[in-house]
């Protein structure tokens, strides 16, 4: 099983809400690669979250460790009515519920057994530490996505794979790469084989951890 850590958001297209954001796109890409996938994250407790969960489920992504927080709405983006390819504009500029280290620790311990854990969005050091520790106790491979230009954190597992995200990923090419890479890892491929199998596009940069 693959666990993807990050908080999904919604995307509004023709009046229907679908799952969006880096964590959703990575999870859906991994599921398309044939892997069992669960998301550990947080949404609001609203109709947007309902649409996100339904879309994840349709894509084969589980959500048993996806928390609901009624204190903040689930962020929602809308397809550009002008027809630019996959460009998005925010419907409402809101901050969604923030997942913290305790939330992630609870979710990972609830899931217990997984081969790959992907921290799909930039995260504070304490959250990175929780995911790194979980990778160690579960003997899983950790995949870490960093913001463009961010330094590689210390004290990661020796076999961690680190990706540097592009400044923007409007077509989901980078997320597709990470998700298909994770699926290949979970299927038993070594990192080199998994990467070669996944690279069919540009717009990404690989960062090697020390």
List the SSEs and their pairings.
Blueprint: E1 2-5, E2 9-13, E3 16-20, H1 22-32, E4 37-44, H2 47-58, E5 61-69, E6 76-79, E7 88-90, H3 101-111, E8 116-119, H4 125-138, E9 141-146, E10 161-164, H5 173-186, H6 191-198, E11 205-207
Parallel strand pairs: 1-4, 1-8, 2-6, 4-5, 8-9, 9-10
Antiparallel strand pairs: 2-3, 6-7, 10-11
Helix pairs in contact: 1-5, 3-4, 5-6
Instruction: Give the strand line-up of the largest sheet.
Output: 5-4-1-8-9-10-11
What is the total domain count? 1
Mean residue pLDDT: 87
Could you tell me the CATH topology label. Answer: UDP-N-acetylmuramoyl-L-alanine:D-glutamate ligase
CATH level 1 class label: Alpha Beta
Hey, roughly how much beta strand do the residues contain? Answer: 25-35%
Judged by helices, strands and strand pairing, the structural class is: alpha/beta
């Amino acid at each position: 099983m693959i666990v993807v850590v990050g908080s999904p958001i919604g995307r509004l297209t023709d009046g229907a809400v679908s799952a969006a954001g880096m964590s959703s796109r990575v999870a859906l890409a991994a599921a398309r690669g044939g892997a069992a996938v669960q998301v550990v994250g947080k949404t609001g407790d609203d109709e947007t979250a309902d649409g996100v969960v339904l879309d994840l489920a349709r894509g084969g992504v589980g959500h048993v460790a996806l928390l609901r927080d009624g204190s903040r709405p689930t962020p929602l983006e809308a397809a550009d009515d002008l027809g630019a390819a996959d460009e998005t504009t925010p419907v409402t500029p809101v901050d969604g519920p923030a997942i913290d280290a305790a939330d992630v620790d609870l979710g990972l311990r609830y899931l217990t057994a997984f081969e790959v854990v992907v921290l799909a969005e930039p995260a504070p050091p304490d959250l990175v530490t929780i995911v790194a520790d979980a990778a160690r106790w579960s003997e899983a491979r950790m995949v870490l996505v960093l913001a463009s230009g961010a330094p590689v954190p210390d004290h990661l597992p020796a076999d961690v794979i680190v990706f540097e995200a592009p400044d923007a990923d409007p077509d989901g090419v980078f997320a597709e790469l990470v998700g298909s890479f994770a699926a290949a890892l979970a299927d038993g491929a070594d990192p080199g084989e998994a990467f070669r199998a996944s690279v069919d596009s540009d717009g990404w940069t690989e960062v090697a951890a020390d």
